[in-house]
Design a protein that fits this description.
single chain; mainly alpha; 19 helices; globular
């Protein structure tokens, strides 16, 4: 007897259908890897966010801060606990935790579960948009490879966690799609939203400005009101910094609390070199990840759209201008990486070898993350 696909699935965009084919088995494997590693390593979970161990896997590190915002709102006070002195929940932008809170209230769900639903829905939507963008520019074969490399990329599992990564990635891709199709009102809306999601949203501005000017042959006389849509990505961060000032009564509170996470402004190159040559193994790991990612993008410079490379370069340099830590996590949203891999790696055997190596690395990183090793903070 022939099994028929559900009608809703046959009507879904091709990118979404292909994404589901990767998403379902990958999440099952990652969940099993996480549970088995905790049992074998006998590591205590970092926090209990639900009654189910398999759900708790997807909440580590900054999950507690986002959950605190979603459940209690922003607090003007900084932490005095050992290991987190000076840290505050207003270091985190509001869109993701507020969406989790809204969905939890609307559907009578625990906030943690609501946040996971949002993260995974955004992951699937982002995958579909990624496929659409790459297919339009490079064809279906390259789009399929890019989608596959996305799902096996080492840090991809973070897009299923109670974190803002998948929402940020989705809005990045929606902004690019709107710019490429010259839908400026859409770009203004998505730009405002992404500016309320994560500070690196400002990395979009140079890339989108380049795309806008390139379509006008870099003639400033052709610049119109549409350029205001690009400026929208800076509105969200400005509004949030002003909100933090109102909340705390301190104009520099948002920037000051970043120092509690070891972030201090400096030369990105010097920070990278110090991290690579220093004695801290976690910083060396992050520095190596940044160098590997930069090398990949450099090698593929002629194979990827210039505006994508501008975004990728800014997404590397902005975090490095304050600290080398968390680079593995930041890599989860630099989408030109997967396009670069899809265009560089040709042939079934090469794709299988590279994809297999990435998948194994992803499982290793998942083990490090769920067992609370600090290199994956």
């Amino acid at each position: 007897m022939r099994l028929e696909s559900p009608s809703w699935l046959t009507r879904a965009p091709l990118g979404l259908r292909k994404a589901l084919a990767w998403y379902i088995p990958s999440r099952i494997v990652l969940t099993l890897v996480g549970l088995l590693s905790q049992r074998l390593l006998q590591r205590a979970p970092s926090g209990r966010f639900s009654v189910h161990a398999w759900l708790d896997l997807w909440g580590q590190w900054d999950t507690g801060w986002y959950l605190n915002i979603a459940e209690h709102g922003y607090s003007p006070f900084t932490s005095s606990d050992p290991g987190s002195v000076g840290q505050a929940n207003y270091a985190f932008f509001p869109l993701y935790p507020l969406l989790a809170r809204a969905l939890a209230a609307a559907c009578f769900l625990p906030v943690f579960v609501a946040g996971l639903l949002i993260a995974n829905a955004c992951l699937l939507w982002a995958s579909s948009v990624l496929y659409e963008i790459v297919e339009h520019e490079y064809g279906a074969i390259t789009a399929g490879r890019a989608l596959g490399f996305f799902f096996v990329f080492p840090s991809n599992f973070l897009c299923s966690a109670f974190l803002s990564e998948s929402l940020y990635l989705l809005l990045v891709l929606l902004c690019f799609r709107a710019a490429l199709k010259e839908r400026w009102l859409q770009l203004a809306v998505f730009g405002l939203l992404i500016g309320l999601t994560r500070p690196p949203a400002v990395c979009l501005a140079p890339a989108l400005l380049y795309e806008y000017l390139r379509r006008r042959n870099f003639e400033w006389r052709s610049v119109g009101w549409q350029i205001l849509a690009i400026a929208s990505v800076a509105v969200g961060p400005l509004l949030f910094v002003l909100f933090v000032r109102h909340l705390t009564g301190d104009a520099g509170a948002f920037f000051r609390t970043q120092a509690a996470w070891g972030r201090h402004s400096g030369n990105p190159l010097l920070i990278l070199v110090r991290g690579l040559l220093g004695s801290d193994k976690n910083q060396r790991f992050s520095a190596f990840c940044a160098i590997a990612l930069g090398a990949l993008l450099g090698v593929s410079a002629r194979k990827v759209r210039p505006s994508y490379l501008i975004f990728a370069g800014c997404s590397l340099l902005l975090p490095l201008s304050s600290s080398v830590i968390s680079m593995p996590r930041f890599s989860a949203t630099i989408f030109p990486t997967w396009i670069a891999l899809a265009r560089l790696v040709q042939g079934r055997r090469a794709v299988a070898v590279v994809g297999g190596c990435l998948a194994v690395t992803q499982c290793v990183w998942m083990v490090l993350w769920v067992n609370h090793f600090s290199m994956m903070a």
